[in-house]
Amino acid sequence: MARSSVPGFLISFLVLVAALLLAFTVGRYPVGLGDLFAVLAAKLTGHAPNVPPAVENVIWQVRGPRIVAAGLVGAALAVAGTAFQGLFRNPLVSPDILGASSGAALGAVLGIFISLGVFAIQAMAFAGGLVAVAAVYAVGSAVRARDPVLVLVLAGVVIGALLGAGVGLIKYLADPYNQLPAMTFWLLGSLAAIGPSDLIPLFGPVAIGTLVLFALRWRMNVMSLPDEEARALGVPTGPLRIAIVAAATLVTSASVATAGIIGWVGLVVPHIARTLVGPDFGRLIPAAALIGGGFLLLIDTLARTAAAVEIPLGILTALVGTPFFIWLLTSVAKSWSTE
Amino acid sequence: MTLSGRDLTIGYGDRVVGTQLDISLKSGEVLALLGPNGGGKTTLLKTLLGLLPPKGGEIELGGRPLASFTSRERARRIAYVPQSHTATFAFTVETVVLMGRTAHGSLFSRPTAADRAIAARMLERLGIAHLADRPSTEISGGERQLTLLARALAQEPQFIVLDEPTASLDFGNQGRVMHEIRALGRSGHGVLFTTHDPNHAMRAADRAFLLRQGMRIADGEIRSVLTRMQLEELYGTKLTVFQDRDSGESAFLPG
Q1: Which of A294, A323, A328 lies closest to A72 in space, CA to CA?
Q2: With pLDDT > 70 as the criterion, what percentage of chain A qualifies?
Q3: What angle do CA A327, A330, A332 make, to 5 degrees?
Q4: B240 secondary structure, DSSP code
Q5: Which residues, 6+ apart, have CB-to-CB distance to B253 below 8 Å?
Q6: CA A321 → CA A295, A310, A324, B161, distances in Å?
Q7: Are A337 and B133 inside 8 Å of each other by CB?
Q8: Which of A79, B5, B160, B195 has the fewest CB atoms within 10 Å, measured from its CB?
Q9: Mean pLDDT for the stretch of residues A118-130
Q10: Can you tell me the ipTM of this complex?
Q11: What is the pTM of this model?
């Protein structure tokens, strides 16, 4: 093991803690740090806190669920991006490479178009993501080629484009006064409507997918070698690729169904994590989860406090992510080769 | 133990690259595979490694069909040293060598202390222990080749198959790799390697297998196979042979 990964983890952890404190305290109804700790302590000891009930309500009912959701979605997108970048041996890959986001987008937009309820729309988005990736995988497997990974990426591009056309068609047909704004808002990503009941359908898939990926962390190191090399090292790459894609897709689809499409997190955060703790997936996956959670939490706090109206998350992540990524490309390209 | 292919038809997809190939490799033997580009060397290598199913014929490892081995069982018996390349991610040299231990663990396991000890021993054996903590993307081509060799040794295989192990190495590193290949044979490994240089085959191998356009031209003891006539026929070029008066060893110059 090269340099120690302890400082990297410490930084990731501190960023997350800072993001948490910030997210709980700032907002239209400011909450002091003292009040926050009083409420938390009261919850632990079972006493009634010595703060106004409104403060307690803001912390547990309004900000709490949204903060948990932001942390989970950020962590999920970062972990999925980490997995896909390793699997495709390409540091420019993001979780939507196999069409999970475009599939979810089509599902959600369709749900809005036929006027379904919120939960049905989320279910449609979740299913859309899974079906899209399954279709990409089926197409990729049907093609017999020397490089199965490349075929998979190309199938993802093609099917993603088709799904994008479907989204475009539905937006074109949609009612421009009621449905179209809802679709646009959803496609840009937001956590504004999150309540406590949204957390279970998000937490379950994210936890399962992340645990599967973490359990396979050593095999994922080997899977980042060329396919034939990994097989010569005794790794059954075919079945493992399915397992990794399925786990990462589960995680991505659950996030997209809850928060809409939020780009950049799954692309940028794995790079930051790799710079901090190195390329070994055993350390990379937890670090990416911590940083991804902290990052999206900061972005979401910005989204609800920076302006009088909510700023869509996808716009903020692009605003922050683009310059950051350009900086990464020019200065810290050391963590992966530029061959 | 023997790794052998009988009456093999090899190729990718619908393309047949070679036919009627009989090849065998015994423990402790070093076999060089020579032939012009596009003659099927790499395809034959990958078929014998079990990475590419043969389109005809049988491959046996220790008397058992190679196809009946799981990928883990196979990786504990045959190791592959691919042509050296730069990895996508900057794993340390130690991590790269530890990847050779993968087939000795279960699906969810990580390398154990025993695995680390074996990796350390292989790094020591190849004289690159000082590189253990270096990113594998920041070492020289020769060091990278030795790292891949250490990874193959960490698999604790009976057979080691190397694809052009001396390609793109400088003169000194070519010598080091040749030396290591000879040492592998002496330590009881069956070694198969491809090369473009008959001199390297002469230096390191006991036997040579000549392959042209998917057909076997010759297979036998190195000195009886690597003659001026055979090599001129194999590569379709004139060559000059030099012989050292004292040792009797020969060297070839093309053109």
Answers
A1: A294
A2: 96
A3: 80
A4: E
A5: B239, B240, B241, B242
A6: 10, 19, 5, 45
A7: no
A8: B5
A9: 89
A10: 0.94
A11: 0.91
Q: Does A146 touch chain B (CB under 8 A)?
A: yes
Q: Using an 8 Å Cβ cutoff, are A187 and A109 in contact?
A: yes
Residue B41 distance to chain A (closest CA, Å): 16
Q: What is the DSSP string of B120-182?
A: HHHHHHTT-GGGTTSBGGGS-HHHHHHHHHHHHHHT--SEEEESSTTTT--HHHHHHHHHHHH
A-to-B residue pairs, Cβ atoms closer than 8 angstroms: 103
Mean predicted lDDT score pLDDT of chain A: 90
Q: Which range among A20-24, A87-91, A218-222, B203-207 shows the weakest confidence by mean pLDDT?
A: A87-91
Is A218 an 8 Å CB contact of chain B?
yes
B133 contacts on A by Cβ (under 8 Å):
1-3
The DSSP H or E segment spanning B199 is helix B198-204
The reported pLDDT for the residue numbered A333 is 55
Q: Do B72 and A234 touch (CB under 8 A)?
A: yes
Among B88, B112, B116, pick the best mutation site for testing chain A contact (most A Cβ within 10 A): B88
Q: Looking at the complex, does the CB of residue B91 fall below 8 Å from at least one CB of chain A? A: yes
Under a CB-based contact definition with an 8 Å cutoff, are residues A303 and A311 in contact?
yes
Question: pLDDT class for A3, splitting at 50, 70, 90?
Answer: low
Is residue A173 predicted with pLDDT exceeding 60? yes
Cβ of A218 within 8 Å of Cβ of B135? The answer is no
From A16's Cα to the closest Cα of chain B, the distance in A is: 26
C-alpha–C-alpha distance, residues A133 and B46, integer Å = 31
Distance of alpha carbon A78 from the chain centroid? 5
From residue B55, how far is each of A9, B62, B157 by CA, in Å? 51, 21, 26
The whole-number average pLDDT for the span A84-101 is: 86
Question: Tens of pLDDT along B139-188?
Answer: 999 999 999 999 999 999 999 999 999 988 899 999 999 999 999 999 99
CA separation for the pair B146, B142 (Å, rounded): 6
User: Please, which residues 267-286 of chain A have a Cβ atom closer than 8 Å to chain B?
Assistant: 274, 278-280, 282
Beta bridge partners of A217: none
Q: Which residue of B has its CA nearest to A90?
A: B88
Whether residue A81 lies within 8 A of chain B, CB to CB, comes out as: no
B11 at the A interface (CB within 8 A)?
no
pLDDT at A2 over 60: no
